[in-house]
Design brief:
Blueprint (H helix, E strand, L loop, with lengths): L1 H12 L4 H5 L2 H14 L6 E5 L8 E3 L3 E5 L3 H4 L4 H21 L2 H12 L13 H16 L2 H30 L3 H16 L3 H4 L6 H15 L11 H16 L5 H31 L5 H9 L26 H9 L8 H21 L21 E4 L11 H38 L5 H4 L2 E5 L6 H4 L1 H15 L1 H11 L2 E6 L4 E2 L12 E5 L6 E8 L7 H19 L4 E8 L11 E8 L7 H6 L9 H13 L5 E8 L4 E2 L2 E2 H17 L2 E7 L4 H8 L3 E3 L6 H16 L1
Parallel strand pairs: 1-3, 5-11, 9-10, 9-12, 12-15, 15-16
Antiparallel strand pairs: 1-4, 2-3, 6-8, 7-8, 10-11, 13-14
């Protein structure tokens, strides 16, 4: 049953949607505790939201962290456990930014680059080629060329963010080696997996900027490049030149070092930028391919050139004296400027660059594309969950990072537990109902409608009842320990050592000079018995009587389970309405515990409630029939009631005579019967059950008296 239940739980968990899991109260608490532990003292709020159209996985604005549970990376994983690992990794990533990233300094760096200024300082060239490249770059920066500034700013932002991301992730993995580290590494691997192998990147007409940035990401995240076919290309050579810069910057605690490293990488990438700029300029300078203009262009003599107009608003620091001077043209081309573009061509250039950068951004790993806004507005989504993060000290914070996986499994279990229990409850109830429908009752009870009740879903308030009754059970067990032990010990397997004869050597005493070197194992003697407890649930049992009855039933149940004895616990009552005919009445049988143990047995026992009247005869016949179908030799039935039956056409002397008849029948069939009278009808109950009658004057003694009686009967049976 346990394996079956576990399998059913797993099957039901497969049906859970990410929204059901990640927006559940349990998961929100998990994230709250994680954020408490790993965010430091800056974080005030954690926001969980779902937005499939937003490619950003997470963001932080200094005080708040936002996590999009429907981001691309998390969505790429199939299993809920993997999705959760991914989200935890994103949380760790964003908390790393909150702890270790200087957002103000990053804004300064980007603003300086947008303004055409190196920050914190210009990169130092290592050779003549780099000196020439730096001169070209400075020329464009001085001119504040919009297209070039956009290109450099976008790439600088991407590279610096990459280096910073790896730095803060390494710090977080070191500080939190549990679920945070696991989640971060899970996301890293997935981002690297999405980057095609180098061979595939180089196929066709590759963009060197895109290729280089992707191999740079591969190296920064995983320490290698996916080039298993031993490809060789210029991009790999450039990567080898910057590897040391990457390694040093992701270990350095200063953000300035990472910005300096970014500038050095930009300088080494200038050859790829130059090629890109030349291609875009050429495209912008080509005439439009319509009839007349194309013909006009073709008729022009090769020597004739169209003079270029000066572009208004351009700030040239070194304006040449003569634009048609060949020497100036050579110097301009040498410095990367080339021919001047017309105003229209410049606009085309800017538009082409914007298009290129958009495509570039879309093709690069998305996890480092994060919001850089100082204050971010809450996403306009209906299902956003705002979680307040406490400001507890470090010694007050729980180690959620180490046990979050277990917590997550508990969350998944709790989300489907009710559904599985409900389905199982319905299946069990239907099976039991078929059983009672197929049973032949005596004439007095044959026409009465009979309905099985089987409760398998419980509220949190109902679950709190159980510990209250468990305390009473423990007190009873303590009082009856001497009586319990012989029975329980009899069930256990035992091994005797230091025996002089036997088939098995005892390695612990193999050197015994007396020769007691054998051991023998004795199998436990199982008690060949089955027990049933039937509790009157009528309204007259309300209050202390019902409380005592539940405590007694739970005590008997626990004792039998510990002793390996199959036990059945049922409650019973009628619908409580006044009827003229027995066929109009319904008697309810509450299945609290079947012979096969179930995880909710004890909850069903302790949540029994009173209702209606009692038709003891029908209930006794039903449970006795179940007991008689057991293979055990000894069968014992305990009835707990406070008075005589009082049902439709079933009361007084007629009911008493019926119960005597049923009792005699059961005894003849081998059932040991015990009736515990706990109400004012004790005398009448004694008349019915005779020597099977137990007078319980003190309700507090009911669990003890019944358990003593059970122990006595079991000793006789053995």
């Amino acid at each position: 049953m346990k394996d079956t239940y576990r399998e059913r739980i797993k099957e039901e968990q497969k049906k859970l949607s990410p929204q059901q899991v990640f927006f559940s109260e349990g998961y929100q608490r998990l994230f709250q505790h994680l954020a408490d532990e790993v965010a430091g003292e800056k974080l005030e709020q954690l926001l969980l939201y779902q937005n499939a159209s937003d490619g950003i996985a997470g963001w932080n604005d200094g005080k708040r962290i936002g996590i999009n549970v429907d981001n691309t990376i998390t969505g790429s994983f199939l299993e809920l456990e993997q999705k959760s690992d991914s989200l935890v990794g994103i949380l760790g990533h964003e908390c790393g930014h909150a702890r270790f990233t200087d957002s103000r300094l990053r804004r300064v760096y980007i603003q300086k680059m947008q303004a055409g200024t190196w920050y914190p300082d210009a990169p130092e060239p290592e050779n003549e080629d780099e000196e020439s490249a730096l001169t070209e770059m400075n020329t464009y920066l001085t001119k504040k060329d919009p297209a070039v500034l956009s290109l450099l700013t976008e790439c600088a932002s991407y590279i610096s963010n990459l280096l910073n991301d790896v730095y803060i992730e390494e710090k977080m993995c070191s500080l939190f080696p549990g679920s945070i580290k696991k989640g971060i590494l899970v996301n890293r691997r997935r981002n690297v997996e999405w980057i095609p192998p180098l061979k595939e990147l180089l196929e066709g007409n590759p963009d060197p900027v895109s290729v280089f940035l992707k191999v740079l990401v591969q190296y920064a995240l995983r320490g290698y490049v996916n080039s298993w076919n031993m490809e060789s290309c210029e991009m790999l050579d450039t990567l080898n030149e910057v590897k040391q810069l990457v390694d040093l910057s992701v270990e350095a605690d200063s953000d300035l070092i990472r910005y300096q490293a970014t500038n050095r990488i930009l300088l080494k990438m200038w050859k790829y930028f130059r090629k890109l700029l030349e291609e875009l300029k050429q495209e912008c300078q080509e005439p439009e391919e319509n009839g007349e203009q194309l013909q006009e262009t073709q008729e022009q003599s090769p020597e004739k050139e169209t003079p270029q107009e000066e572009q208004p608003g351009k700030d040239f620091s070194d304006e040449p004296p003569e634009k048609d001077n060949e020497k100036w043209k050579a110097n301009a081309q040498e410095n990367g400027c080339g021919e001047e573009l017309t105003e229209e061509q410049q606009k085309k250039m800017e538009s082409a660059m914007d298009k290129y950068l958009k495509e570039l951004t879309e093709n690069l790993p998305a996890f480092i594309q994060e919001s850089e806004a100082e204050e971010k507005a809450l996403p306009d989504v209906e299902n956003a969950r705002i979680i307040q993060v406490s400001k507890r000290s470090e010694d007050q914070k729980e180690s959620t990072d180490e046990k979050s996986e277990l917590i997550f499994q508990k969350i998944l279990f709790q989300l489907v537990e009710g559904t599985v229990d409900q389905k199982i409850g319905l299946e069990v109830r239907n099976r039991l109902q078929k059983e009672v429908d197929g049973m032949k009752f005596d004439a007095a009870h044959d026409r009465v409608k009979k309905e099985i009740l089987y409760k398998n879903v419980f509220t949190e308030a109902e679950k709190k009842f159980l510990p209250l009754y468990e305390a009473a059970v423990k007190r009873t067990e303590k009082r009856l320990r001497v009586r319990f032990l012989p029975i329980l010990e009899n069930q256990k397997e035992r091994t005797e050592h230091r025996m002089f004869f036997g088939k098995r050597l005892d390695m612990r005493t193999i050197a015994d000079p007396g020769g007691a070197v054998y051991k023998r194992t004795f199998q436990g003697k199982k008690t060949d018995a089955a027990v049933c407890v039937l509790v009157d649930n009528s309204d007259s049992m309300m209050g202390q009587r019902m409380e005592a009855a539940k405590a007694a039933a739970l005590t008997l149940y626990d004792f039998c389970r510990k002793a390996g004895i199959p036990v059945l616990v049922y409650g019973h009552h009628t619908d409580g309405y006044s009827h003229n005919n027995p066929s109009e009445e319904t008697v309810y049988f509450h299945s609290c515990a079947e012979f096969a143990e179930d995880r909710n047995d004890r909850l069903r026992i302790t949540t029994m409630e009173t209702c209606g009247s009692n038709r003891d005869g029908a209930a006794l016949l039903f449970v006795a029939n179940k007991l008689l179908n057991r293979p055990e030799k000894h069968k014992m039935l305990f009835l707990i009631s406070d008075g005589l039956p009082n049902a439709t056409c079933y009361s007084g002397s007629y009911a008493m005579a019926d119960l005597r008849k049923i009792k005699e029948k059961l005894v003849k069939k081998g059932i040991v019967f015990q009736a515990a009278a706990i109400g004012w009808d004790k005398k009448a109950i004694q008349e019915i059950y005779g020597n099977a009658y137990l007078d319980i004057s003190d309700l507090g003694e009911l669990p003890v008296r019944l358990t003593k009686q059970l122990a006595k009967l079991l000793r006789r049976a053995n």
